Amino acid sequence: MVIQLKTQEDNVFQRAESILIDETFTNEEKEAAKSCLSDLITEVGPPITAYPFWHPLVWRPSISDYPTLPSERNGFRHFENVIYFSQGFLILDYSRDPEIETQIDKIHSLVEKSLQGRHFTLVAEPIDTVLRRHGVKPLLVKCEYGFELEEGEKFPSSAAMRFMLTGLLEVSRVSDRSEPWDVFRQFVLGCPNLTASSPFVTRETGELLKKVYHVLLQSGAIGSESY
User: Fold this and answer.
1) Does the pTM of the predicted model rise above 0.70?
2) Distance CA 114, CA 118 (A)
3) What is the b/e burial string over 208-227, where b = at least 16 CB atoms within 10 angstroms of the residue's CB?
4) DSSP secondary structure string, 157-208?
5) Is 220 left (phi over 0), alpha (psi -120 to 50) or beta?
6) DSSP secondary structure string, 19-66?
7) Is residue 50's pLDDT more than 60?
8) Cα–Cα distance for residue pair 122/112, rounded to 1 Å
């Protein structure tokens, strides 16, 4: 199963690399882009395809379901070309939205208050390396936390559990139906994932999230199970 997850992660990485490195780049530009991607992974984790619904980048208290990507629904305008990493995302547009920092400030204030003081900051940083195409102005939007992430930029169990519980209980106010773990795990673990692990959490943390989700489901605290 570990090999299966690694294969999924490798496929996502290769897709990100193919987007960032254009065939028309010079050899020097290709090497610079590869080096930039490596630095980004060190800084904001591996490329991913979807976030856990509780991730500060996508969760908002006003949303009544489980978005897994940044969009207009959770405060961001529509972006044409984006690469997602576990703790940030890279916008690859030809122009930078002058309102992006204002958007980020509003989102940060809303989410930090709702997550009951679990400190984090949303930051936008321009990237100077040529990526995707000449003329593109890459912008990295990332989360910085007031707690230590685990190896691989994964959430510690304390933060992941707090975020998940806050999100589930918020949505349960307006929804009385919940899904079994096998259906819902993609929303808790993000993608790619296996039964209880992903680029966002270790297997041990994933098992804890799974166990607590089952307890909440069986108790009816987050609604009755859908069949």
Assistant:
1) yes
2) 9
3) bbbeebeebbeeeebbeeee
4) HHHHHHHHHHHHHHHHTT--EE--HHHHHHHHH-BS--SS-BTTB-HHHHHH
5) left
6) HHS-TTS-HHHHHHHHHHHHHHHHHH-SEESB--TTSTTT--TT-SS-
7) yes
8) 10
What's at 220, amino acid-wise?
A: G
Q: Which helix (H) or strand (E) holds 209?
A: helix 203-219
Tokens representing 1 are 């199963």
pLDDT at 1 over 80: no
Enumerate the β-bridge partners of residue 159.
none
pLDDT tens for each residue of 60-105: 776 667 889 988 777 777 677 899 999 999 988 866 666 666 666 6
* pLDDT reported for residue 201: 96
For residue 17, the 8-state DSSP code is H
Measured at the CA of 22, the angle between CA 20 and CA 23, to 5 degrees, comes to: 150
